[in-house]
Each structure stands twice: as structure tokens, then as C-alpha cells.
Amino acid sequence: MAVAPPEEGLLPSLCFVGPGNLPALAREYGHLRVGGMEMQQVLLARTLAKEGYDVSMVVADHGQPDGASWDGVTTWRTYARDAGLPVLRFIHPRWTSVWAALKRADADIYYVSGAGMLLGLVALFARRYHRKLVFRVASTLDCDPATLCVEHWRDRKLYEYGLRHADVVLAQTRDQQAMLKRAYGLECTVAPPLAHAGGSGRDFDERDVDVFWVGNLRPLKRPQLFVDLARRLPTLRFAMAGGPYPGAETFFEDLRKTAASIPNLHFHGWVAPDELHMLYARARVLAGTSETEGFPNIYLQAWSHGMPVVAYLDPDALIRTHGLGEVITGPDEMAAAVRSLATSRDLWSAVSARSRQYAAARLDERALLAPYVDAFAALAAASAPQMAARAGNRFAFNDRGP
To answer: Positive or negative CA dihedral for 258, 262, 265, 268?
Structure first.
């Protein structure tokens, strides 16, 4: 049952903790790497700020002023990516600067996405200062210790600590919900991803790209399969967009050089988030090569533009159930499905219409916000006395240590 939002005077203050969020929030830093997890946090933060919540964000240091605001979201600066000495920088400046920024945010509820030590750090902070913590799964890999992409034992233990001490855990899909229950014994709520509504209405003949790929260029996403697909279908027009992922710069350069040798493939490299919609509008089919991630934001963007999705990954069987493209298991199936959709006007038009209709229904802002607002409202109701007591007793800004 949905929880009614608290009265205006009891709206909790919210802090989104995401060191990588600033490029998604502030256009002047948009040339830096940003992924789906960061886009989701920023989209939710902006929307809640418009709804009247006091929203802040803990972000990395890119030289921006501490306390600067964008779109109603106040940002608190932590550490620069390469600051500190190896090994020691885990404590300082990373732990110390994050802890200090959490205090400057002084929020009632802290929100973290993605597996790693950050969740454990924020959980320790929340328990120390009697605040609430919401964790949202960013990838299916986060849901099972056997698939967890966290390198260090220390960070894995901090993540598990955070999982078990979060006040609310949100999953993107029912599959993730079941995995968390099975692997960690955790109860969680499904909170589908947000996305921008209002895509392109271009028809088949108005699109000059047959097949499109977008994402961070790293091995996990398997973009090399898209490059191979372009080779196999030389009469179709391909385009791919994505920047290098930290630690995968050599992979990016190798892929860029290979793509340059394929005449029917246009390699855009990094494209600003605000400009990606133009590429979505031009393309007929989205190709998804990843087998494991959360709910891909690119699917929702593609469907809002009336673009069928041909992919290996089908979260909660949405593609199959609603006829929004094709689910494939190998390169031969992908080539056949892409060729069929990209060259048949009648087939494409039918799937495109279903995709646009699904996106219009799915991307209703009020419905998408409901699981998040309900979670925040329940936590606010449970801690209303503490929230009221804190109103005149804020953290000291000069207290930097843990």
C-alpha cells in the first residue's frame, strides 16, 4: 500500500551520494564520463527538487565551488579522482572528505546507488548520526556475492555491511528483487528507472541510421559485438556513441581504431547527454550487446523515440511480453533480427508504434516517482521526532573528520 506523502513541514531533506554525478548534473562538466547510474541519481534528484524537497548531492572534486547549486540541487565537494597516496588515500582524502561532505549536507535521508565501499561508509555515518539510508541497486551484478564487481575484500565487506544496514533497499526489476532475497535474505521494493519522456516522432524513411549503439566503452558492455555486426551487414548504416571508461582507455582506443576501418560504421565517441537525443531520433534500431547490467536506461530512451530494441538482455521479459523488439542469444540471431527490422518498413512501423505506446505509459512521471516518494515518506514518518529535534541543531561545517 502506498504511503501518503508527509505534510509539507515534514518533507525530509535528501542527499544523493554519488562521486560521479556532477557531469550529469552540470552541463559545464558534461565532457567527463557519466553512466546510467549517475544519470538516474541526477534525474531523480532534479525531479524531487522540483517537487519541493530540499535536495543535495555529494560529488567528486572537479574544481567546482563547494556548495554550488544546479537545478535546485546543492552539491558538496569531496576528493579529486587521483588525490592522495595509494593505499593511504582510502582513509584520506576519500573517507575523510566524503564523511565531511555528508555532514555538510546534513540530510535526513541519504541515498546511494551501486556496489562498493561507499555504501558501507554512508551506512556507518547514518548509524552514527541517526540518519536514514536508502540503497538502490545499479546492476544485477550487485545482487549476488558470486557476481559482485568489487575488487578488494575490504570494499566487499563494507558493501555487505551497508546492504544489511540500509533502511530501504530498492531494486530496478523483479529479477533483482528475487536475487537479493535469495543471496542476502533481503526484502526490497521494485523502483523502476526514470527516463526523459517525449521522444522523436520520425517515421521509417526519416531516419538515416539503421542501427545504433550507445554506452560506456568497456569490456562489460561488449561493444566489439556491435563492431562485428557492422562488418557482417555492410549495406546497413551503423553508428555508435560512448566515451572511455576509467581503466579501459586502451580498450577504447583499440575499438575506435577498428571502427574507423569499417566504412558503414560512424564512431561518434563521447556525446554530451543533452545531445544524445538527436542520435536516438535518427536511428531505426537499438542494438544491446550487454548480457549483465541493471535496467538499461538506453532501452527506455530508445522506446520513447519509437526505436525497437534488439538485445541479449531482457529485464523482466519486457521486450518479449510487449513486442518491443527482439531478444537474441548470439551474433547470428542479432544479425537476422537487425536486418529484418532495419529494412522492413511495415515490420519496423508496427514495433515502433508499440515501443512508443509502451514508453508513453511507462514514463508517467508520477507513477515512476511513487516507489521513491513512498520510501522517503515512510522513513520520514518513522523519524519525525528526530527530524524536528534536528531543525535547530545543525552540524558544524568545520568538523571535517569521521
So the answer is: positive
